Amino acid sequence: MARNRCAPNYPGALAQPIYVEDHYKFTGPLGQPNWEPDVAEISKRAVEKLWLLFEHYKIDPSDEQRWRELALSLALEHVPGLRFANRPKRGRKPTWKTGLGDELVRAVDDVKSRTGKSTKEAIAALDWEKWGGHTFDSLGARYREARVRQKASASLQEDWSNGIDIAISRAGHPPRRRRSRGGTKRSAKTSRRRK
């Protein structure tokens, strides 16, 4: 079931209800006084507020389609079934900050390369001043998740790059030159000129 949302904040008179008690009139014979709601006055106040709605939603009151536009504006504002949204993700909300997984992978890989330890031993050997707010098991799980995400990202990057090369070759252009991770590729002529 959809959650009830509060009505949007309307300005000025649109935020105030029409109080029926303020619009009573005295009726009845002289001997028997009777107070009744003044329906005409209440209707007048309601019509005034309708014109304020046109102004609020920036609808031209002289337009032939004004009532249709007002109905659509109100429906989009108040009916949850007419709103666009992404499905809520299942499970617990992530508490791991963005980029922290990549930082953890770098720290663990650094310890592994310097000491030759296994992943579990490298996690245990981390600087606990920085990573002490997390449990050993949590760090292990976050490390594995970050590695899977990094591998998937690298695979997507390679597929994207290969797709571009295929598209360029089909268009009759030579394939792009790729840069190595260590730096830029230089031709022999460029290297000789710099010497």
SSE inventory with pairings:
Layout: E1 24-27, E2 34-37, H1 39-56, H2 66-78, H3 100-115, H4 119-124, H5 128-131, H6 136-170, H7 188-194
Antiparallel strand pairs: 1-2
Structure in words:
This protein is mostly helical and 195 residues long. It folds into 2 domains: 12-82, no CATH class; 100-176, no CATH class. Helices cover 51% and strands 4% of the residues. The chain contains 7 helices and 2 strands; from the N terminus they run ββααααααα. It has a two-stranded antiparallel sheet. Strand 1 (24-27) and strand 2 form a beta hairpin. The longest helix is centred in the last third of the chain and has 35 residues, at 136-170. The chain is elongated.
Given the structure, what is the number of helices?
7
Number of domains: 2
Tell me the radius of gyration. 34 Å
- If strands are numbered along the chain, what order do they take across the biggest sheet? 1-2
Main beta sheet: 2 strands, antiparallel
Please give a handful of descriptors for the protein shown.
single chain; 195 residues; mainly alpha; 2 domains; 2 strands; 4% strand; elongated
